[in-house]
C-alpha cells in the first residue's frame, strides 16, 4: 500500500518529449496539480529541449520519475538507446506516454521499451490527450480555467508517492543552496587507511553539523593512477554513502590530477627520444658531439592507443561514479548545466589531459602545456558558456586540479588566461582545486579560489594527509550569494584511530554593491 505524505513535498518529473508545442501544456498541467489542495506533491517539471539536455538531466539523477513519449522524431530516436540505457542503469521509475497507443508503431516501441526497462519500475501508461492535454485545453485549443478533476490528481499522487518510495533520485537538502563535500589529494595507494576512514569522517561531520548534497573531487585521487588504487577510492565513496556523509545518488563532479593518469606510461606514450643537429646563430653545427638530444612529442596510432591504455583506470572510475562515459572528453572540458535551476553550473577542466612532455636534455620528460590544444579548448569553453545564456546570478563552479609553482610559467599563465576570459561574462565564480597541499583562499574580484589542503599546520602533515572539507553555498541564484568553507582537521583518537573534526570556517559574501567577493569573517 502506497503512503501519501501529509505535507506537500517537492518532486522533479523529467518529461522526454520531442514536441516543443507541448511544453506549455505540460507546464499548465503541473501548475494546476501543484495548486490543487488534493495534490500531495509540488511537481517541478523538467522539459529538456534537446537529446543532449535530456541525457544531462538523467545523469543529474534529480528526477524521481520520467515521462517518456513513445513517438520521437528522427533526431531524438537516434539517442533513444542512450536515454533508455541510462534509465535502465539508474532504475528510474518511468511512465510511458503517447498520443495513440493503438498505433502499431507506438505499440511496437512500447514493447521494446518494456523489454529494455525490464527491471525499471513502470508506473503506468498516459494517453496524452486524455491525461494531460484535455485537462488544460478545450477542443479549440483554448486554455481551460477550471481545476483538475479528481481522478488525475489521485493518479499523480500515487505515481509520485511510488516513485519517491523507490528513491532513485537526488534533491538538495536546502531550497536556497547546496553543501559540497570537497576531496582532493587523497592519494589512494600511498595514503594510510586510517586517514581515509569513512566512519571517522562521518563522526566529524556530524559533530560539526555538516551534511553534503554534492561531491567534488579535484584530482590526485590516487598515487599512481593504477586500477587497484581506484578500487580503493571507489570503496571509500561507497563507505561514505553507507555512513550518511553522501546521499546514495548525490551528484559527483571531478577532474584528474597529475597522479591519476598513469603518468609514466601516459607520458611515455607521447614521447620519442631523438637526436638532431644543434644550431647557433642560425647555422647548423658540424660537430657530431654537439648533437642536441631531446624528447619529442609524437602523434601516431600507437601513441593514441597507449594514451587510452594509460588513462583507462581513471576513465572507468569516473564513469562508474558519474554515469558519464566521457571523463576525458574530446572537447577538453565538461560544462554541466543540469543544475542551473538551483542557481549554479559546473565547469570541469581536466588540465592534466592537456599537458604533454617538453623537450629536455635530460632523460626525464618535463610536463608543459600543449599551447595550441589549450588555446583551442579555451575557445570552445568560452563559446559554450556564451551560448548557454545563463542567468547573471548563476554561480559558476570551476574544478581545476591546481597550479604548480614548480611548473613552467605557461602552465600557470594559460590557466589564468582561461579564467580571465571566463570572468568576462560576469558570473560569480568559485574555482576549486588542490595539488599544492597548502590551504589558500584567494579573491580576485568576482572570482573566489579555494585550494583544499589539510587544516593541520605542519608541512609534514600537509604532505601526508588528504584534504577533506565542506563548501556551503547559500542564497544561490541571488545577488546575496555566500560561501562558507569548513575543512576537517585530524586529531588522535582512541587506540591510534584518527579522528576528524571541523576546523575554523572561512565565510565569503558576494557584495551587492561591487558584485565582488568579500572575506567577511572567520566563524567557528
Give the distance, in angstroms, between the N- and C-terminal Cα atoms. 47 Å
User: What is the oligomer described by this structure?
Assistant: single chain
Fourth CATH level, the homologous superfamily of the largest domain? Metallo-dependent phosphatases
User: Quick one: overall form?
Assistant: globular
Number of strands: 25
Report the biggest beta sheet as strand number plus sense, adding barrel if it closes. Answer: 8 strands, mixed
Report Rg: 26 Å
Q: Kindly state the percentage of residues in helix.
A: 25-40%
CATH class of the largest domain, please?
Answer: Alpha Beta
Number of domains: 2
Stated plainly, the CATH topology of the largest domain is called Purple Acid Phosphatase, chain A, domain 2
Number of helices: 14
Please state the second-level CATH architecture of the largest domain: 4-Layer Sandwich
- Overall structural class, as computed from helix and strand content, comes to alpha/beta
Spans of at least 5 consecutive residues whose pLDDT stays below 50 are: 1-6, 278-293, 357-365
Query: Beta fraction of the residues?
Result: 25-35%
- State mean pLDDT (0 to 100 scale): 80
